Amino acid sequence: AWIQVMPWDERQFRISFVTKKEAISNATMNLMESLILAQDERWRHA
């Protein structure tokens, strides 16, 4: 039974791992974009 369960668990783990990595990179992208936009705003008002 344990051997049958393992592949599914591993697949679930991989899926959640990839999803977390994507979520982290998306968050990083959003953060970078908002920082760049904030600097644009600062330059515009300067």
From TrEMBL:
- Superkingdom of the organism of origin: Eukaryota
| UniProt name for this protein | Uncharacterized protein
Kindly list the organism's lineage. Answer: Eukaryota, Viridiplantae, Streptophyta, Embryophyta, Tracheophyta
